């Protein structure tokens, strides 16, 4: 089945289907022209994913269930516990909302000390409130690499993403070199500074690309159709490493 039929049968948008596929939840076969061919099993898997997501079960837990690493009942219990904790948190927040409405608070009259004390009292009673710093830390841990280096996985193509990323780097480096480094340090100094930036970019890129390559190699989906992409990705990785090593050798004067 083509993806359009899957959209009609599951009610999912194409982006959702691609997302679940990228997470390793469904594994459509590849035809000779590299088009995805979804099976009835894929349809049933997607329907189960929809059901479990409606329970607010995490993608990670669903993936573990489908991989046989986590029993459904254990996942349901974990989800139920998380929902119960959220319910308790919401209850405490609802009480404070009621108090604010009763007092007809405005942003000018809102006393943080007063409500901090109310929150403290309710926490002593077992009520829970949102941990703001915890949210920030969790978001940072989950999304740092995606936000910083997400261009490496444009449309699922690491090679294409690396090329686009390198293009951004070249434009940035040209701007800095033309308007800042060259007027300040001259031609030779400008070249060495530019190479140092390229070296730093290459080292960080190589680290992330190695991490991505390990994820691909150890992922559940290992089909021949991936071999070409892996070879191309490996070639780009070797080129980036070569730039990093060459930059370091130049910095220590190996080419002088």
Structure report:
This protein is mostly helical. Strand 1 and strand 2 form a beta hairpin. Helix 8 crosses helix 9. The protein is extended. About 9% of the residues have low confidence.
Keywords, separated by commas or semicolons:
mainly alpha; Multidrug-efflux Transporter Regulator, Chain: A, Domain 2; 3 domains; 2% strand; extended
Helix content, binned percent: over 70%
Low-confidence stretches: 144-159, 220-226
Strand order of the largest sheet: 1-2
Largest sheet, in brief, is: 2 strands, antiparallel
How many domain regions? 3
Q: Structural class per helix/strand content?
A: mainly alpha
Q: How many separate helices?
A: 9
Q: How much β-strand is present in the residues?
A: under 5%
Query: Care to count the β-strands?
Result: 2
Would you kindly provide a brief summary of this structure?
The chain contains nine helices and two strands. With 256 residues, it is mostly helical.
Strand and helix layout:
Elements: H1 3-10, H2 14-22, E1 29-30, E2 36-37, H3 40-54, H4 59-66, H5 72-102, H6 112-124, H7 132-149, H8 158-217, H9 227-251
Helix pairs in contact: 8-9
């Amino acid at each position: 089945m083509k993806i359009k039929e899957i959209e009609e049968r599951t009610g999912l948008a194409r982006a959702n289907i691609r997302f679940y596929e990228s997470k390793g939840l469904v594994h459509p076969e590849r035809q000779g022209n590299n088009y995805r061919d979804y099976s009835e099993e894929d349809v049933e898997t997607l329907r189960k994913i929809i059901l479990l997501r409606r329970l607010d079960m995490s993608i990670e837990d669903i993936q573990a269930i489908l991989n046989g690493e986590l029993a459904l009942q254990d996942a349901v219990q974990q989800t139920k516990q998380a929902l119960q904790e959220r319910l308790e948190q919401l209850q405490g927040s609802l009480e404070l909302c009621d108090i604010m409405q009763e007092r007809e608070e405005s942003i000018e009259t809102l006393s943080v000390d007063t409500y901090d004390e109310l929150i403290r009292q309710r926490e002593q009673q077992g009520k829970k409130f949102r941990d703001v710093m915890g949210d920030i830390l969790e978001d940072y841990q989950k999304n740092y690499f995606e936000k910083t280096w997400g261009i490496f996985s444009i449309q699922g193509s690491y090679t294409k993403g690396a090329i686009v990323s390198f293009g951004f780097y070249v434009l940035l480096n040209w701007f800095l070199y033309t308007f800042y480094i060259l007027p300040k340090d001259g031609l030779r100094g400008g070249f060495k500074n530019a190479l140092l930036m390229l070296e730093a970019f290459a080292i960080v890129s190589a680290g992330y690309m190695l991490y991505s390559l390990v994820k691909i190699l150890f992922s559940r989906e290992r089909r021949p159709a991936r071999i070409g992409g892996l070879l191309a990705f490996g070639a780009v990785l070797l080129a980036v490493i070569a730039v990093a090593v060459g930059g370091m050798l130049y910095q220590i004067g190996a080419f002088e």
